[in-house]
Amino acid sequence: MAEAAEEAPPATKYVLITGGVVSGLGKGVTASSVGVVLKACGLRVTCIKIDPYLNTDAGTMSPFEHGEVFVLDDGGEVDLDLGNYERFIDVTLTRDNNITTGKIYQSVIEKERRGDYLGKTVQVVPHVTDEIKQWIQSVSSVPVDGQTRPADVCVIELGGTVGDIESMPFIEALRQLSFSLGKENFCLIHVSLVPVLGVVGEQKTKPTQHSVRELRALGLTPDLLACRSAQPLIGSVKEKLSQFCHVPVENILNIHDVPNIWHVPLILRNQKAHEAIIKQLNLTRSAGPPELRDWTDMAESYDNLKNSVKIALVGKYTNLTDSYLSVVKALLHACVACSLKPSIEWIAASDLEDATATTAPDAHAKAWETLKGSSCVLIPGGFGDRGISGMILAAKYARENKVPYLGICLGMQISVIEMSRHVLGLLNADSEEFNKDAPDRVVMYMPEVSKTHMGNTMRLGCRRTFFRKPDCITSKLYGSPSHVDERHRHRYEVNPAFVPMLENAGLQFVGCDESGKRMEIVELQDHPFYIGVQFHPEFKSRPRRPSPPFTGLILAAIKQLGTLSHNSNGFAGDSE
Questions:
Q1: 172 three-class SS
Q2: Which of 126, 342, 471, 511 is surrounded by the most beta carbons within 10 Å?
Q3: 309, 375 in Cβ contact below 8 A?
Q4: How far apart are CA 73 and CA 94, in angstroms?
């Protein structure tokens, strides 16, 4: 008698998040919060973000265009919403979890060139839509939580706004997918806006009505509405939306403004969003009541924090704070772990420069006043030479005045340039990025990196850093391991020829890669906390597992570095 076949794993079910009326409503936070609540019900969750732009990935975009570029373990340069997913749901995603029009068309054209379509005329329907469906189903079957079986639910966020011409192929593909899977396997949540007009003073439903009508005209009918508003919706508004949008009143969720975004999963739970989704997907046997006690404690404890710490963030893209979203979140995680609220003082690096004292004296004076009034200094990553002189001045100020300093990627390179100029006396020391003809290129182009192509050519993804000096501050913050695994995104590195000179001057290179030649971590002797890291520790920071370098910065700022430097419990860096 033949052996019984292995039980087939249950098919992954889908929750699609779309947006209407205007962009920037918080679809990413909504998608992340839905994932938190479903995970709290005992379900395993994965996520996909669809970006309809033609770029293959986010790697070549300016932060002013699309916010920060989030980097994954596998080196994927992706939309910042994937950072929200990882932080909220505590999963490890891959580059394939970010689908773009560029990726889809590139795959279709490659197949056409190989002759995979057997001479047929290649069209948007069915070839592009089939590629989208195949990609979604393939990616959703890959575990992202360390398990071996596919997730129970895949939350898909469709970027942009319903009606955008570039998202039409995705809308059609998702319509086909929902039809082929059936209602028990597909749940659509439409995020919309319920504004209040200043003159009238009432909550207006017409924008949401029109948005849902357009969505239905494209073949998709929402199962739930997530209505964004400044204040909670009144009952009559929900009834009106139900009547005109064909959504049950109990399935109309109201995501109103909250003190911090950690409250959003709690809002969804309180409005029984999980029950509606679980009922729609027929997962009542697999799911239990949501266990969100720890999440509730975290959200409420932050609201009750009284003390704060001033952090000077000296950067290039300070006009758009989303450019440094992961840095901001990592500072938040570290501050909350220290029972503090972060008070981030945004300083445009160019405002610190001597030239600004002439062209914009008020901005120059305010920038320096802000810097000197802060408890610590952080210089994050960036590209290009704008503002570099101001960053060097900020690093010099922190070094000379023993102000706690953390330099990330470019920030580490800035500390090397500053020391070379003002301590070693190499007045023309510079990075090859800013001056390829500098006589003392203390920061140089990595030899293996392409100088002709920009996209996906940097040193990317999770790389191992080995501690050269086990008793250094950074090692203690991580719990004194032999190595740590952190994510990278850079094409320049410290020139190893200058390392001995810098170490003799007191700048110790305490971490390096497996070759021993690529420097990863620097610490300044005889300074309470002056650390630079070539990697980006912010990408692995989590609400309950703050990044060790960020935690160290905050502890040093409040003069309590000794309290946790020997304890790695709750820290985020991988050091197995």
A1: helix
A2: 511
A3: yes
A4: 7
State the distance between the two ends of the chain, measured CA to CA, in whole angstroms. 46
User: What does the pLDDT look like over 4-16, one tens digit per residue?
Assistant: 444 455 589 999 9
CA–CA distance from 64 to each of 11, 39, 208, 387 (Å)?
Answer: 40, 33, 29, 16
One-letter amino acid identity for 568? Answer: S
Helices (H), 343-483: 356-359, 361-372, 388-400, 410-422, 473-477
Active-site residues, by number, are 409, 536, 538
Amino acid at residue number 201: G
pLDDT above 80 for 167? yes
Residue 449 is predicted with a pLDDT of 62
Name 110's Cβ contacts closer than 8 Å, sequence gap at least 6. none
Hey, what's the torsion of the CAs at 387, 391, 393, 394, to 10 degrees? 140
The H or E element that residue 264 is part of is helix 264-270
Exposure letters 450-483 (e unless 16+ CB within 10 A, then b): eeeeeeeebbbbbbebbbbeeebbbbbbbbbbeb
User: Are residues 445 and 432 in contact, defined by beta-carbon separation less than 8 angstroms?
Assistant: yes
pLDDT grade for 456, boundaries at 50, 70 and 90: low
Give one word for 501, left, alpha or beta, with left for phi > 0 and alpha for psi -120 to 50: alpha
Report d(CA 533, CA 347) in Å as an integer. 21
Nearest to 573 by CA among 546, 543, 534: 546
Which stretches within 445-562 are classed as H helix?
473-477, 499-504, 548-557
pLDDT tens readout for residues 211-228: 999 999 999 999 999 999
DSSP code for 524: E
What does the chain come to in residues?
Answer: 576
Dihedral sign of CA atoms 536, 537, 538, 541 in order = positive
* Closest listed residue to residue 228, CA positions, set 201, 198, 189: 189
Cα separation of 403 and 309, whole Å? 13
What contacts 447, CB < 8 A, 6 or more positions away?
none
DSSP characters over 99-139: EEHHHHHHHHHHHHHHTTTTTPPP-IIIIIHHHHHHHHHHH
Percent share of the chain, pLDDT over 90: 84
CA–CA separation, 469 and 508 (whole Å): 9
Phi-psi category of 410—alpha, beta or left, where left has phi over 0 and alpha has psi -120 to 50?
alpha
User: What whole-number distance in Å separates Cα of residue 37 and Cα of residue 292?
Assistant: 8
CA distance 333 to 341: 9
Peptide bond preceding 496 in cis form (omega within 30 of 0): no
